[in-house]
Design goal:
The complex is a heterodimer of chains A (223) and B (138). Chain A is of the alpha/beta class and 223 residues long. Chain A has helices at residues 14-30, 45-58, 74-80, 99-108, 153-156, 158-162, 175-178, 182-192, 209-221; strands spanning 2-11, 33-38, 63-69, 86-90, 119-123, 140-146, 166-170, 197-200. Chain A has a single domain, classed as P-loop containing nucleotide triphosphate hydrolases (Rossmann fold), CATH 3.40.50.300. Chain A has a 7-stranded parallel sheet with strand order 4-3-5-2-6-7-8, sandwiched between helices. The longest helix of chain A has 17 residues, at 14-30. Chain B has a domain at 3-68 and 102-116: hypothetical protein PF0899 fold, CATH 3.30.2320. In chain B, 28% of the residues lie in helices and 27% in strands. In chain B, strands 2-1-6 form a 3-stranded mixed sheet, with helices on one face. Chain B has a 3-stranded antiparallel sheet with strand order 4-3-5, with no helix packed on it. In chain B, 31% of the residues are buried. The chains are: A alpha/beta (223), B alpha+beta (138). Chain A binds chain B through residues 1-16, 94-96, 98, 129-130, 132-134, 155, 158-160, 162-163, 190-195, and chain B through 1-2, 5-6, 9-10, 12-14, 17, 21, 24, 27, 31, 36-39, 85-89, 96-98, 100, 104, 106-117, 128. Strand 1 (2-11) of chain A pairs antiparallel with strand 6 of chain B.
């Protein structure tokens, strides 16, 4: 027997990364802004998205959403009330979306054709760990943090928070009853992801939504 | 718990690469995993056993080399290793340093193979030297 060492230097998720790069090219050439929304379960991704889809449509923007969950199409039905095209991805036990799932669903989605779209939101499976490794071809990764979760979430889950391009602090209407320390939350976000863009919203009252929507509209204009 | 997906991806990639060495047995797989890669080592080791069970990779060791985070400080102009993943500041000047130079890696560095000495035992018509030459040409 001879022992041989073979250098591979190959990304473990190379297939996903290649698929994601292909998707990114497709999104860029079609001029669609794609966002990947990540957070723990119950942070309010769907509530933020419900309001965002509705309000962006009211601004005349063409929006759509792909929404991931282990089971049920509850979120897709909620979001469809906005009038925007929505498609559910059920992962059946898998804790994250990957580029292949996104590609497959986009190909099968007759209601959506790319050049006729300004923004596509991908709502990831609620999980603060696993989605961080899987590029979906998005241009902007948005991490959500609710005031009910505690200010130290970024410190506890640095891998995901560090991979985000923007953060939304949700449920700010509950900040006072929860004793939410805003300064500490902002400090923690900046320790883990220095300079991250932060939005503070309440999908319930509409507080802070304007700044968030302006940001999205502005980014969608960058082609 | 995406370690099972990751373990399966490693099995797939290693099986593909090892196919170039007929008759060889994979003894070890070495990984480079960044401190920010969101991978739990114990969990990955556990899933590795599950994912390799009943495959030619069964029994192969998984060696995980964890890489610390390295940031580039714009003020000092140097790259520095961070002690943890709780604060992204230059250890020299204390300025925030968001420019990550290492820490998100998730890659297979190398595989260690046991190869039979005689080409016939390796179920290959070609000698090891010939195989190497073919690989070079490919």
């Amino acid at each position: 027997m001879t022992t041989r060492i073979v250098e591979l230097r190959r990304g473990i998720l190379k297939k996903n990364d290649e698929l994601a790069a292909g998707l990114r090219d497709r999104f860029t050439s079609a001029g669609v802004l794609v966002l990947n929304l990540v957070s723990s379960p119950g942070t309010g991704k769907t509530a933020l998205l419900e309001r965002t889809l509705r309000d962006l449509r009211a601004r005349g923007m063409r929006v759509a959403a792909l929404v991931g969950d282990l089971e049920t199409d509850n979120d897709a039905r909620r979001l469809a009330a906005s009038g925007a095209p929505v498609r559910q991805i059920n992962t059946h036990g898998i804790c994250h979306l990957d580029a292949e799932m996104v590609a497959k669903h986009l190909d099968a989605w007759e209601a959506v054709s790319f050049p006729a779209l300004d923004l596509l939101f991908i709502e990831n499976v609620g999980n603060l760990v696993c989605p961080s490794s899987y590029d979906l071809g998005e241009r902007i990764r948005v991490v959500l943090l609710s005031v009910t979760e505690g200010e130290d979430k970024p410190l506890k889950y640095p891998g995901l928070f560090n991979s985000a391009d923007a953060a939304v602090i949700t449920k700010i209407d509950l900040a006072a009853p929860c004793g939410f320390d805003r300064d500490l939350a902002l400090k923690n976000l900046n320790e883990i992801r220095p300079g991250i863009r932060v939005f503070e919203t309440s999908a319930k009252t509409g507080a802070g939504m304007e700044a968030w929507l302006d940001f999205l509209a502005g980014e969608a204009r960058i082609r | 718990m995406h370690e099972l997906s990751i373990a399966s991806s490693i099995v797939e990639a290693v099986t593909e690469s090892a196919a170039a060495y007929p008759g060889a047995r994979v003894k070890a797989v070495r990984l480079r995993v960044g401190a920010l890669a969101s991978v739990v080592q114990d969990s990955l080791q556990f899933c590795w056993e599950l994912a390799t069970e009943g495959t030619p990779l069964a029994g192969a060791a998984l060696v995980i080399n964890v890489l610390p985070v390295i940031v580039h400080c714009a003020a000092c102009g140097i790259d520095s290793q961070l002690d943890g993943v709780q604060s992204f500041r230059c250890p020299h000047c204390g300025q925030i340093a968001a420019d990550l130079r290492q820490g998100r890696e998730l890659e297979i560095e190398s595989i260690e193979l046991d190869e039979p000495d005689s080409p016939t035992a390796g179920q290959s018509y070609w000698s090891t030297a010939e195989q190497d030459k073919m690989k070079e040409q490919a």
